[in-house]
Amino acid sequence: MDKCLFCRIRNRKIPSLCVYEDKMVYAFLDINPVNEGHTLVIPKVHAADFLSITPSELPGLIWGVQKVAAAVQKGTRADGFNLIVNNFRAAGQLVDHVHIHIIL
Ligand code: AMP
Ligand code: ZN
Questions:
Q1: pLDDT tens digits, residue range 9-38?
Q2: Among 95, 101, 103, 104, which residue has the most ligand 1 atoms within 8 Å of its CB, making it the best to mutate?
Q3: Ordered structural domains, the chain, with CATH
Q4: What is the pTM of this model?
């Protein structure tokens, strides 16, 4: 059993509201949204934080974030959005599988 919460979500061992998935990323709604459409995008390969993502995983993650952000913005008719990545406890990171917040 995987110890990482977001690996378990990505492997569908824990339910989530998936909004997008491809070879590189999994995107799902935040369980405690700041506002409507608050979405998390994670790389499928485990990396604890932004500094731990390998060069081969990083482009796919960024492409995925751009795709999901465009769709979420369109779906919520928001005029803009923020991308946030908390890294390490001192910066508020609670889940040690890197995730990009899309907040409208
Ligand atoms: P962070 O503080 O950047 O590590 O954010 C962790 C985020 O994960 C928070 O916004 C939580 O609401 C969210 N979260 C925690 N558990 C779940 C879950 N099971 N499904 C969806 N989002 C979650
Ligand atoms: Zn993980």
A1: 999 999 999 999 999 999 999 999 999 999
A2: 95
A3: 5-103 (3.30.428.10)
A4: 0.97
